[in-house]
Write a structure and sequence with these properties.
This protein has a single domain, classed as Carbonic anhydrase (Beta-carbonic Anhydrase, Chain A). It contains 4 helices and 5 strands. Strands 2-1-3-4-5 form a 5-stranded mixed beta sheet, with helices on one face. The longest helix is centred in the last third of the chain and has 13 residues.
Length: 146
């Protein structure tokens, strides 16, 4: 099936919130991107597993991390999530989506299992008006990404 198909060159890590209308905001090209969704759009072990497959086997050359305003994951602390769900796992709760974007972009940029030439960018999706503002982009960083 994939022999004649040109694979996507981008992967996007984002929240599972259905209010995010990525094709509407980022254009039709996003429909051909690999989308990895979870609660809060955070970089987790499973996201890293997916990105390794995307970058090493599927020729992805850039990764976007998109968090959004009015995210329910920023309304709870780690402790509240454990008490509410009864499950003690790392929920990667956060209070400020700008800080969480920078944390996740930094984590990916410094991840030893990903290609250091990979372009990684972070954006904030505004639920109120369905726009995205780019917060961070490794294309603008020095080659060492420090």
């Amino acid at each position: 099936m994939y022999d004649s198909y040109s694979p996507a060159r981008a992967a996007i890590v984002t929240c599972m919130d259905p209010r995010l209308q990525l094709p509407r905001v980022l254009g039709p090209a996003v429909e051909e991107s690999y989308i990895l969704r979870n609660a809060g759009g955070r970089v987790t072990e499973d996201v890293l597993r997916g990105l390794v497959v995307c970058t090493r086997l599927l020729e992805v050359t850039e990764v976007g991390v998109i968090h959004h305003t009015d995210c329910r994951m920023q309304k709870y602390t780690q402790e509240e999530l454990i008490l509410s769900t009864g499950v003690a796992i790392d929920y990667r709760a956060f209070t400020d989506p700008l800080v969480s974007i920078l944390e996740d972009v930094h984590e990916l940029a410094n991840c030893s299992i990903l290609n250091p030439q990979l372009r990684i960018w972070g954006g904030l999706y505004m639920i109120e008006n369905h726009t995205v503002s780019i917060i961070s982009d490794t294309r603008d960083w020095s080659p060492s990404r420090t």
